[in-house]
C-alpha cells in the first residue's frame, strides 16, 4: 500500500478539479447527516441538562411546553398568571422549596425576570462585577445583555413600553444596574434579573409619587375621602427609584393576589414530590405541576418521526451522490484505460491495479470523512450556540 | 535470457494478416534486431516474446520456461521481474515526474525493492541518457525525445534479463540516438540480458548479433 500511495497522491493532485468535485460531493453527503445528528444531540443535551436541574415547574393549566420554555428559558409565552398565594400552597408543610418567577416584561428586548434572591443561588449565578439588587428598582444584567448593550454597574436601563399608544398605561421604569453576572447559561446570560417587587413595580401594581397630605398646596390634592388622599392626574409619578423617593413607593392590593408566571419547586424527596404533585393533579385545579425533564423527553419523542424522515432523505441523497460518483468513476476508468493497460503490459497484477484504484477512492473517502467531521463540528459548535440562543 | 520460439502462428483479430514464425533459438545475451516495413509484425513479435499477447499456435520459451503454458498472473510476474519493455508510444504516466516514471516498476511490484543501489542506478541511467536535470519534471512537459529516453530508462531500471525495445531511437537526433543505443547495449551487457530491438534505423544494425527481417521472405525474412 505504501508503495502505491505516491502514485495515488500524484494522480489526485494532477487532476485537481476532478478530485475536488469528487471530494466535495462526498463531503457534502457525509456532512449533512453528521451535522443534523450533532445539532440534534447538542440541542437535546442542552435542553435535557437544564430541565434535569429543575425538578418541578408550577403554572397555570395550559401548554406544558410553554410553561417549561418559560420557566427554564425565559420565553415570553406562558399559560397565564397565577397568584402569589400558590407559592404558599407549594411551601405548605415544608415539603418543598419554591422560587417564584414573574417574567412578563422586557428591557431593550431582553426579558426582565423577577424572582427572589434564591434564584441566584439555585442557578449558581455569580457576579462578574458589582452587587446583587439592593433595593427596589435595582437590576442585575446577564453577561450577554451587558456586553450587547455596553452597560455596567451604575448605569440605568429603561423597561420597554408594553403598549405604545396606551396613554393610560404604566410608565417605563428606569432601573439602576447594580451588577453584571458572569457568563453561565444562554438563558440567564440574556436576561435582566430583578427582585420580585421590582417586577411588580414594572407591572404597575406598585408605584411612587409626590407626597399628598394636608400640606399639599399645589392643586394636585383633589379631595380627602374617608381619610384617603385623592390626587389629580397632575401628581408627579416617579419613573426611577432613588434614595430620596424610595419611601414614596408602595403597592396596592392584596399581596396574595400579586401575579407570578411560574414557580420553580424542588421537593425534599420522592414522597414530597408525590404529595406536591397531588396538590395540583385535580382536574378542576386551575394550576398544573410538570416535570420539565418529562416534557423535554416527550418533545424529543414527538420529534423522532421527523428525525427518521431526515434520515431517509439523507439516505436518498447518499444514493444519488454515490450513483453520480459511480458514473464519474466509470468514466474516469475509461479515460485511464491506457494507463492501466500500460501497467498490465509492464507486468502489474490485476490485484495491484484494483488496489491502486480502490486506494484513490479510499483516500477521497477518508479526506471527505475528515472534512465532513471538521465542518460538522464547526457547524455544531456555532449552530448549537445559535440554537441555544434561539431557545433561550 | 535464453529465448526459443517454436513455430509460432498469430492471426490478427480482424483476420487480415497472419504472422508465422519458424523455430528459432537465441542464446543468453543475444542482441537481435527486428526490421521490416510498418505493419509487418515487429511489435507483435515483441509482444509474443513478452507474453503480453499469446500466439494461437506454437510456443515461446524463456530460459526453458514455456511462456504460453504459464498463467496470466505468472506471465505478468515474469514480465515485471525479468523484462524491460520500451513501448513504441512510450506509455509514460503523465501525472508522474520523469524519475517517478522510471521508478514505476518498483511501485507496481512488491518483489522489487527500491534501495540505495536502485536509486544510484536511476541516477546513472538518467545521467547517461542526458535527462537527469529533468528528473523532477512531469513527463507531459518533456519533449518527445526526452520522453523516449525516460521510457528507455524505465525499461532498464530493474536490471532485466530480457530487454524488448520497440523503435527506441525513432524520435531522437543523432547524438541522443547514439546515447540510447550505447545505453541499451551497455546495460544489456552489464545484466547479461538479451536485447531485442524492433527498428527502422539501418545505421544501428551493425551492432547486433543477428538481424531478422520480418515480412520479407525474399530477403530471408519471416512472415
User: Which chains make the largest contact?
Assistant: A-B, 21 and 28 residues
Q: Tell me about the biggest sheet of chain A?
A: 10 strands, mixed
CATH superfamily of chain B: P-loop containing nucleotide triphosphate hydrolases
Structural class of chain B: alpha/beta
- Rg on CA atoms of chain B, Å: 17 Å
Mean pLDDT of chain A: 87
Distance between the termini of chain A: 52 Å
Radius of gyration of chain A: 32 Å
What's the tally of helices of chain B?
A: 6
Cα end-to-end separation of chain B: 24 Å
H/E element string of chain B?
Answer: EEEEHEEHEHHHEHEE
What can you tell me about this protein's structure?
The complex is a heterodimer of chains A (392) and B (223). Chain A folds into two domains: 4-47 and 303-391, no CATH class; 56-205 and 253-290, no CATH class. Chain A is 49% helix and 19% strand. Chain A has helices at residues 5-14, 16-52, 64-73, 85-91, 118-122, 143-149, 186-189, 196-203, 270-279, 292-335, 337-346, 350-391, and strands spanning 56-60, 82-83, 96-107, 110-115, 127-130, 138-141, 156-158, 174-181, 192-195, 206-208, 221-225, 228-231, 249-251, 259-260, 262-267, 287-290. In chain A, the strands form four sheets. In chain A, strands 1, 3, 4, 5, 6, 7, 8, 9, 15 and 16 form a ten-stranded mixed sheet that branches. In chain A, β11 and β12 (228-231) form a beta hairpin. In chain A, α2 (16-52) runs antiparallel to α10 (292-335). The radius of gyration of chain A is 32 Å and the shape is elongated. The model of chain A has no long low-confidence stretch (mean pLDDT 87). Chain B has 223 residues and is an alpha/beta fold. Chain B has a single domain, classed as Rossmann fold, CATH 3.40.50. Chain B is 34% helix and 21% strand. Chain B has helices spanning 42-50, 72-82, 98-108, 116-129, 144-156, 174-191, and strands spanning 3-11, 18-21, 24-26, 31-35, 57-62, 65-66, 83-86, 162-166, 194-198, 210-213. In chain B, the strands form two sheets. In chain B, strands 1, 2, 3, 5 and 6 form a five-stranded antiparallel sheet that branches. A five-stranded parallel sheet of chain B has the order 7-8-9-4-10, with helices on both faces. In chain B, α6 links the parallel β8 and β9 (194-198). Chain A binds chain B through residues 3-4, 6-7, 10-11, 13-15, 338-339, 342-350, 352, and chain B through 50, 52, 73, 75-81, 83, 85, 87, 91, 93-96, 100, 104-110, 114, 138.
Amino acid at each position: 500500500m505504501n508503495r502505491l500511495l505516491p502514485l495515488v497522491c500524484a494522480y489526485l493532485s494532477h487532476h485537481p478539479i476532478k478530485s475536488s468535485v469528487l471530494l466535495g460531493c462526498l463531503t457534502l453527503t457525509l456532512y449533512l447527516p453528521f451535522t443534523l445528528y450533532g445539532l440534534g444531540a447538542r440541542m437535546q443535551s442542552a435542553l435535557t441538562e437544564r430541565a434535569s436541574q429543575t425538578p418541578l415547574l408550577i403554572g397555570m393549566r395550559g401548554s406544558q411546553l410553554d410553561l417549561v420554555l418559560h420557566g427554564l428559558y425565559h420565553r415570553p409565552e406562558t399559560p397565564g398568571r397565577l397568584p402569589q398565594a400558590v407559592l404558599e400552597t407549594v411551601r405548605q408543610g415544608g415539603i418543598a422549596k419554591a422560587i417564584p418567577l414573574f417574567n412578563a416584561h422586557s428591557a431593550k428586548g431582553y426579558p426582565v425576570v423577577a424572582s427572589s434572591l434564591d434564584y441566584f443561588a439555585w442557578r449558581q449565578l455569580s457576579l462578574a462585577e458589582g452587587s446583587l439588587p439592593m433595593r427596589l428598582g435595582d437590576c442585575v444584567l446577564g453577561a450577554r445583555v451587558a456586553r450587547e448593550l455596553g452597560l455596567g454597574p451604575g448605569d440605568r436601563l429603561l423597561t420597554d413600553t408594553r403598549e405604545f399608544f396606551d396613554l393610560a398605561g404604566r410608565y417605563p421604569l428606569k432601573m439602576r444596574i447594580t451588577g453584571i453576572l458572569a457568563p453561565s447559561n444562554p438563558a440567564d446570560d440574556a436576561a435582566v434579573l430583578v427582585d420580585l417587587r421590582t417586577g411588580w413595580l414594572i407591572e404597575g401594581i406598585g408605584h411612587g409619587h409626590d407626597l399628598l397630605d394636608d400640606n399639599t398646596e399645589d392643586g394636585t390634592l383633589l379631595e380627602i375621602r374617608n381619610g384617603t388622599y385623592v390626587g389629580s392626574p397632575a401628581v408627579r409619578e416617579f419613573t426611577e427609584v432613588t434614595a430620596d423617593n424610595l419611601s414614596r413607593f408602595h403597592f396596592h392590593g392584596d399581596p396574595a393576589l400579586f401575579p407570578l408566571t411560574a414557580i420553580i419547586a424542588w421537593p425534599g424527596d420522592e414522597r414530597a414530590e408525590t404529595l406536591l404533585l397531588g396538590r395540583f393533579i385535580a382536574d378542576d385545579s386551575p394550576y398544573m405541576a410538570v416535570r420539565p425533564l418529562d416534557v423535554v423527553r416527550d418533545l424529543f419523542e414527538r420529534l423522532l418521526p421527523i428525525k427518521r424522515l431526515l434520515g431517509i432523505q439523507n439516505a436518498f441523497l447518499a444514493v444519488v451522490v454515490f450513483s453520480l460518483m459511480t458514473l464519474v468513476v466509470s468514466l474516469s476508468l475509461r479515460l485511464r484505460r491506457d494507463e492501466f493497460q500500460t501497467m498490465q503490459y509492464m507486468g502489474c497484477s490485476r490485484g495491484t491495479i484494483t488496489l491502486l484504484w480502490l486506494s484513490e477512492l479510499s483516500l477521497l473517502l477518508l479526506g471527505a470523512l475528515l472534512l465532513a467531521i471538521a465542518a460538522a463540528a464547526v457547524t455544531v459548535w456555532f449552530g448549537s450556540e445559535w440554537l441555544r440562543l434561539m431557545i433561550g | 535470457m535464453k529465448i526459443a520460439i517454436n513455430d509460432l502462428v498469430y492471426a490478427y483479430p480482424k483476420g487480415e494478416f497472419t504472422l508465422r514464425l519458424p523455430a528459432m533459438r537465441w542464446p543468453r545475451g543475444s542482441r537481435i534486431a527486428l526490421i521490416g516495413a510498418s505493419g509487418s509484425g515487429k511489435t507483435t513479435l515483441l509482444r509474443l516474446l513478452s507474453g503480453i499477447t499469446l500466439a494461437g499456435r506454437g510456443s515461446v520459451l524463456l530460459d526453458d520456461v514455456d511462456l504460453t503454458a504459464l498463467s496470466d498472473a505468472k506471465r505478468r510476474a515474469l514480465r515485471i521481474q525479468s523484462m524491460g519493455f520500451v513501448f513504441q508510444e512510450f506509455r509514460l504516466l503523465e501525472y508522474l515526474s520523469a524519475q517517478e516514471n522510471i521508478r514505476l516498476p518498483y511501485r507496481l511490484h512488491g518483489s522489487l525493492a527500491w534501495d540505495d543501489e536502485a536509486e544510484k542506478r536511476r541516477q546513472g541511467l538518467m545521467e547517461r541518457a542526458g535527462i537527469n536535470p529533468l528528473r523532477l519534471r512531469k513527463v507531459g512537459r518533456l519533449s518527445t525525445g526526452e520522453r523516449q529516453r525516460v521510457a528507455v530508462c524505465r525499461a532498464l531500471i530493474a536490471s532485466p534479463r530480457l530487454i524488448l525495445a520497440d523503435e527506441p531511437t525513432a524520435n531522437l537526433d543523432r547524438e541522443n540516438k547514439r546515447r540510447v543505443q550505447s545505453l541499451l547495449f551497455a546495460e544489456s551487457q552489464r545484466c547479461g540480458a538479451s536485447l531485442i530491438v524492433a527498428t527502422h534505423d539501418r545505421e544501428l544494425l551493425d551492432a547486433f548479433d543477428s538481424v531478422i527481417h520480418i515480412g520479407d521472405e525474399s530477403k530471408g525474412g519471416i512472415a
